[in-house]
Amino acid sequence: MLAYQRLLGHRSTQRSFTYVAVATFLCLLFYYYYQPLPLPYSLQYSFIQHDISRVPYQLDAHIKFWEQLHTSILNCSLTGDSPIKIGEFVTAAFENLGTNAADIRPDVLRMKDIDLTEATSQHQRFVAQVRDSNYGMVFKPKSRGIATTAGGNLLPIMVMSLRMVRQTGCTLPFEVFMADETEYEKELCEQVLPSLNARCIVLSHIFDSLAPGLPDPGLKHYQFKIFAILLSSFEDVLFLDADSFPVQDPEKIFLTAPFTSHGLITFPDFWASSISPLYYQIASRDPTPLTAHQSTESGQIFVSKRTHRNTLMLAAYYNFYGPQLYYPLFSQGAHGEGDKETFLAAAETMNETYYQTSEWVKPLGRIRTDGSGFKGSAMVQSSPSEDYTLTSRGIWRIRDMKGADLLAPPPAPLFVHANYPKFNPATLFGSAPTGYVFNPTLDETGHDTRAWMEPRPLLDAFEFDVEKVFWEEIEWVSCRMAGYFKAWKDEDGICENVRKFRMKVFPGTEEAKLEK
Ligand SMILES: *[C@@H]1O[C@H](CO)[C@@H](O)[C@H](O)[C@H]1NC(C)=O
Ligand SMILES: *[C@@H]1O[C@H](CO)[C@@H](O)[C@H](O)[C@H]1NC(C)=O
To answer: Do residues 74 and 243 make contact, with C-beta atoms less than 8 angstroms apart?
Structure first.
């Protein structure tokens, strides 16, 4: 019996040894060959707080940050005159650079020497203060979310875009920045938006809290974009204009290069940059070559507040003194003068990385029935991840637009920026909305029409019928929510108009789908 046990013991020791050897071998094999498999998105995201109602907005911390930044900004204030314009130039299309005389950087602004000297030294001091100070933006670590600005007439448009965000399966929390209490719409902010994982934040609650004696920043709406980013709750932020929406889940972009490698992604405008040489003098650096990237269409921006603190703080400085100095310097009167160039200019000056999607922005529209050409009413921006896959292999479709499809297929569409005119159902039907030259829902013979029918290959690249789904959401907002918007208080028949239009132009859409 004892012998048997010993034998057994011996045999089991031998067997254990074999097991250990095999296990060690397997471990080594595993160690050498194991490549972590990418987790499905849903699992990777589990550490992120998706439910906005469970993360209160850190108002006091944001106020404290703004007080510090505001002090630095005022400490480097500008007292000089704005630049004067001494001539005109024709904005060059980016793809024509190098093939015609427009290759030369426009230079039509002049400043007095004394103002230039002040701007230069204040810029230097601000950059030094940002670099040497250690306060920073407030955000919940490892969080991702979407920020936008809206108020008044833009609120219905913003809700349509938010519904389109949710259509892509994206559940990211969403923060809407409003100027002040007059823009805050209680029922909308407290009843409707929370059900869409969204909330309102009133900027004046932050701006007006400054210690007595500090002047009100007096910022205007078009300067708010940077403040929506700076004061949002998220570490990784997608800023969206109220009239821009994604056509595929934008959350994926945060997980791949170039976001993971560059931390700041912007999108191109049609034009070449027209930054004045004076700006580079003020920023004390070499001009960025005109061929480096297109000017920026800032309706959508991905940025990490963790990696791009300095860029965002300098961009805040540029926007604060934008109307007075930096907006004219960045555009010299070219199309869409405003915040658009402040982000990349700040990143370049702060030596922080960025990636501007190189695939050109594409107009979406229809061919006029009277033969007078193309009628665009939206802009399409492409996936920066797919764009980066090409450019990091040295493939730049933009450098040969005509032959581009022979080089590589285009990156998939990511955003539709429906900005001209905005698809506001209160003003869309009938005559052209005030200030616009046409109504995109009417053809040249006065009949209702789809607005987005060309170019065909671009529409084929969408994974769904974007315009049809957009109208379903316009109808949902018009028929379910009309009562919530102050801007629509005195409007009648918005729902009926939308429903009639949608039935005629998109027949076959079931009512039931709209009841969701
Ligand atoms: C600006 O900052 C400097 C150095 O921190 C300080 O000495 C100066 O008083 C400040 N100026 C203003 C106008 O706040
Ligand atoms: C950026 O890099 C340049 C060149 O190395 C340097 O001269 C400049 O001071 C840097 N700027 C900042 C803000 O650090």
So the answer is: no
